[in-house]
Amino acid sequence: MGTRLSSFLKGHRAEAVMAPLFKLLEAVFELLVPLVVASLIDIGIANGDTRYIARMALLLVVLAAVGLASSVTAQYFSARAATGFAEKMKSALFMHIQSLSEKDRDEIGTSTLITRLTSDATLVQNGINMFLRLAMRSPFVVFGAAIMAFTVDSTLAWIFVIVIPVLSMIVAVIMMATVPMYRRVQNALDGVAQRTRDNLKGARVLRAFCRTEDEEKAFSLDIQSMYSLQMLSGRISALLNPLTYAMINGAVAAIIWFGRERFMLSLIEIGSIVALVNYMNQILAELVKLANLIVTISRAVASGKRIQAVFDREPSMKDGTETGKADDEIAVAFDSVSLSYNDAEPSLKDISFIVRKGECIGIIGGTGSGKTTLINLIPRFYDATAGSVTVFGRNVQNWTLSSLRSMIGVVPQKAVLFKGTVRDNMLFAKENASDEEIEAALKMASAYSFVEEKGGLGFAIEQRGQNLSGGQRQRLAIARALIRQPDILILDDSTSALDFKTEAEVRKSISSIEDSTVFIVSQRVSSVMHADKIIVLDKGSMAGIGTHQELLSDCPVYQEIFYSQTGEGK
Amino acid sequence: MKGNAYIHTVSKMLSYTKGARAYLVLSLAMALLSVISTLFFPMLTGYAVDAISAFDGESFIICIAAMGAVALSTALFQFVMNIANNRLSYAASMEIRKDVFRQIGRLPLSYLDSHPHGDIVSRMIGDVDQVSDGLLLGFTQLFTGVLTIAGTIICMFTVSWQVTVVVILTTPLSLFAASFIAKKTFTFFYRQSESRGEQTAFVDEMISASHTAAAFGMEKGNQDRFDDINRRWAHNSLLATFFSSLTNPVTRFVNSLVYMAVALSGGLAAVAGIMTIGGLSCILVYASQYAKPFNEISGVVTEFQNAVASADRIFRFLDEEKESDDSMLPDIPEGEGSVEFRNISFGYPGSRILINDFSIAVKPGMKVAIVGPTGAGKTTMINLLMRFYDPVSGTIAVDGHDYLLFRRNSLRKRFAMVLQDTWLKSGSIKDNLLLGNPEADDEMLWDVIRRCHLDGYISSLPRDLDEWISDESEAISAGQKQLISIARAMLAEPDMLILDEATSSVDTRTEALIQEAFDTLMKGRTSFVIAHRLSTIRNSDLILVMKDGNIIEKGTHSQLMAAGGFYSELYNSQFSH
Q: Can you say whether residue B84 is alpha, beta or left, with left for phi > 0 and alpha for psi between -120 and 50 degrees?
């Protein structure tokens, strides 16, 4: 079990207690008003005492003011508790999401994580806010009225004893029925979010294939089924108010009916019957208010469960404990490593190799042969299904993720930049980098000149680097990895959008870094042929390992790749 | 927000219930009926009590029967009203969402490229939810509240018109207080919604890029940034929640003062003998009864600000300038596929001119390659060809027709494209392929899959064509994503083809095989190819060498190699090891 949602109220316990308490106080002051008015009439007017009347009027003002003060205090405390809760919960949820592995996030889905972190969090917040405002007030009024009924006539008061549990049952049944439905509504909302995000990101492709109208139709269907779910849950919630109303007024009729019988037997006075009816009406007034909030609370419960489900998902990756510096002579070792995504055939099968510190390793192989999968195991984006991966003498599972990853600079295949300036993007990789360091890294990645042209380090990059060309993005991504001066540098086909000249420049400056272990994943033989060792992958298995010359002489897969490129090239 | 703009937003919100006018009428009618019967029930109670004390058994039975009937019918009215209100607000939010979605399809790419997607998602999800809640609350409580007030006023008039006048005259006091708070809270609600948008945008960006974030150990920094946005959100949310919840206590306080004034003056009047004690108690009962629905309504009005603030953000998005409406324009006529760039100048919004007075004529069936260093403007050419962006000046003529004068879709239908940044929709592999041609049957799909050498991969999946994939999935390699994009384009069987680094992540052996398939496909079709692996474009009919937005060389491979310029340098650098 992960973090319990209730734990986020911890820092707000005082507020969570004070809010309903002050709300209660307000109700008490409200109840005092009729008493004051009664004495104003009974004593003040009856005795013609104008000073007494004035004093009582003043008392009314005081009561109103105190009522206002306690009500404002209550509202403040409940707002504080609810937003404080939501703030903590969101922060913890974001942290938890970050702690999940790539695999976990893949399985859960980004869109649903976004809706849970936003829409569901808001619903829970509203629920808590309303709950705190009414949690004590409503039971107080309801039970207070029932107890008062007993002081009036203990026989007729049994009607209250029957009505209150029945009403609670109705509320409970409706909540139980609607909570799963509201959950389904939120699930449908995930779909809405997903299609929206898809259409924002895929705008070019969808427009190119003239599919925007199809998408609109599909969206209409999605949202239509969400609407049906809303109507279904709404229909059940819509029962609450009328049922309450009918129940209470039925009880009023019952009070009068049985009251008459007792009146006939002279066991009760008319005034008492009227008083009982009034108490019943007080319950009604309170429950009608509550009924509207039951929906809010049911939705909060449904959303709370969805958020809880994310918290309950333990990161499938356990963080290691070892920190420290990379000092082993063997930088990376794979020992019979296999990996499969989901239930599909394994993407990597029984891979073993050893890489010494300072070596440059090329990885080459066909599409889907497992190149990216292989290098993803080094910074532990995924865990091997079988076998072990060792980095600087320790199993990757023993390193803490942060110390493992701080040794490694990765340039992913799809260069992802963030909204912010060029400098911001570089600082993500190294918090305290100076402008000189940034410029040096940019120069090494052949990115300096275009950055300078665009206005220097302060140039604003849009989300995902939308306002840069593919090659510019890749070079910035390389500079970002270089600025960390990593012990292990991994370039995952990260020069594919560069022209050959620029690529050669970049490769040259990378090979000039001392002591750095470099992995270069590429489709091009020319990019890996100078590596100390080349790993050849074929459908997830290792088809060969060795230098360019060695592989050329004894690895058929490599030969095939080599000749397919040079054969056409020359 | 200014009064007019506010009313505009609210009326726009309400206009979304237009389609369900019948339900609006139904809701109003049911509200009226249930208010009447709710007010009627206490009277029946009174009669029943009177009947008891008068020992009138017959009218007692009638009263009890009437009470049962009224209670049941009130419940029924309420139920029907609730259903109608659900219908009104859920349908409205559905229509708003449809409009937001449609707007996404209509906005120019320049907008989508430069605005955080998460913020748009937040409008679609969070803001529409607020509007829906606000409408539901409004319909449920506003109608009945107003009707209850009206009903009470009528009842009061029948008892004492003087008192009624006094009470009505003091009403503005509490209304004034409520509107003051409502105005203040609107700003807070708007800020709350804005920071929610900011938060969604950040989460969207960071979770989508979790791979990179993890690689650079950005988790801590991201947490700090998230917490920073979160704090600002919580601050705005606290202010909005707190201030909006003040309305009820404050109006109640104002009403208490009125009540006190009535009690004081009434009491003094009674001492002076101007008024009876019975009269005073009657006035007091009505004064408090009248105030109750008022308090409720003023509370609803402030909560409603939340919905209006969100609606405002939605309508601002809907009011963003769309691509020019081309539905009235004709389809571009079919032709052989000649493409002519005529004096094209272009620069991205807010930046300098990138392409200046560019002209080139491409004959039907030609294979045109565009090469050059990164950032030279190659992808921009495609943005212009597909009309993702419109040229600042000049135009492109397709088969001699100025393409600005025809429907965009008719132009785009003639092209198929494969982009450098692959994109897969969330769905099955089949869904993704069908984007290219929704009519394709499985046989056609498998044919194209084989041609793209995806058959081995797809067959190895547990649910082959029905395997679920998404753009964010890591289980599918970049090369495979590209192959699916290629298959999609091949299925479209277009007149013209655009390939922007279409095979950059595909291995060279597969690439060579795909090339054959492309060559077959491109035979007789005009095509534009951007590639860094110059080997793939050697056999092009025309090679355009671009640098800094200009064509610096053009010709065939052998011409350019013979010229010994930029191209030959670029070409030779591939093998300079």
A: alpha
Instruction: Report the top-level CATH class of A100-312.
Output: mainly alpha
Residue carrying structure tokens 């969400």: A226
Q: Does B432 touch chain A (CB under 8 A)?
A: no
Q: Report the alpha-carbon distance of residue B253 to residue B244 in Å, rounded.
A: 15
Whether residue A277 and residue B45 make contact (CB cut-off 8 A), yes or no, is yes
The full set of domain ranges for chain A reads: 1-84, 100-312, 319-407+524-570
The residue of chain B nearest to residue A253, with distances taken between CA atoms, is B64
Topology agreement, domain B324-414+496-577 and domain B422-493? yes
Contact between A197 and B412 using a beta-carbon 8 Å cutoff:
no
Give CA separation, A94 vs A23, A98, A100, B10, B236, in Å: 33, 6, 10, 35, 20
Chain A residue with Cα closest to B426: A198
Residues of A in contact with B416 (CB under 8 A): 208-209
pLDDT tens digits, one per residue of B404-456: 888 888 888 888 888 877 888 888 899 889 888 888 888 989 988 988 888 88
CATH level 2 (architecture), domain B422-493: 3-Layer(aba) Sandwich (3.40)
Paired residues of A348 in beta bridges: A339
The CATH code of the domain at B107-322 is: 1.20.1560.10
CB pair distance less than 8 Å for B49 and A273? yes
H or E element, residue B428: strand B427-428
Angle of CA points A269, A275, A277, to nearest 5°? 110
CA distance B343 to B142: 61
Put simply, the answer to whether B216 touches A466 (Cβ < 8 Å) is no
Residues B203/A118, Cβ–Cβ less than 8 Å: yes
With CB atoms and an 8 Å threshold, state whether A381 touches B245.
no
Residue B289 pLDDT class (50, 70, 90 cuts): low
Q: CATH number for the B324-414+496-577 domain, one of 3.40.50.150, 3.40.50.300, 3.40.50.720, 3.90.79.10?
A: 3.40.50.300
CA distance B484 to B478: 10
**Taking chain A, what is the end-to-end CA distance rounded to the nearest angstrom?**
62
Query: Which of A253, A343, A364 is nearest residue B67 as measured by Cβ atoms?
Result: A253
- Rounded to two decimals, the ipTM of the complex is 0.87
Which residues of chain B are within 8 Å of residue A115 when distances are taken between CB atoms? Answer: 125
Nearest CB to A192 within list B104, B124, B209: B124
Residues of B whose CB is below 8 A from A274: 49
Output helix, strand, coil percentages for chain B, rounded to the nearest 5.
65, 10, 25
Task: Please provide residue B445's backbone torsions phi and psi, each rounded to the nearest 5 degrees.
Answer: -60, -50
Kindly report, residue by residue over B373-406, the tens digit of the pLDDT: 777 788 888 889 989 899 998 999 988 888 888 8
What burial class does residue B414 get, using C-beta atoms within 10 Å of its C-beta: 0-12 exposed, 13-18 middle, 19+ buried? buried
What is the distance between the alpha carbons of residues B44 and B59, in angstroms, rounded to a whole number?
11
The one-letter amino acid code at B280 reads L
DSSP-assigned letter for residue B534: G
The rounded radius of gyration (Å) of the Cα atoms in chain B is 35
Instruction: Name the minimum distance, in Å, from the CA of B568 to any CA of chain A.
Output: 12
Distance between CA atoms of residues A458 and A441, nearest Å: 16
CATH top-level class for A319-407+524-570?
alpha beta
Contact A295, A237 (CB under 8 A): yes
| A462 lies within 8 A of chain B by CB | yes
Which of A:547-566 have CB within 8 Å of B?
Answer: 560-561, 564-565
Calpha distance A181→B90 (Å, rounded) = 15
* pLDDT tens digit sequence for A474-507: 889 899 888 888 888 998 888 777 777 788 888 8
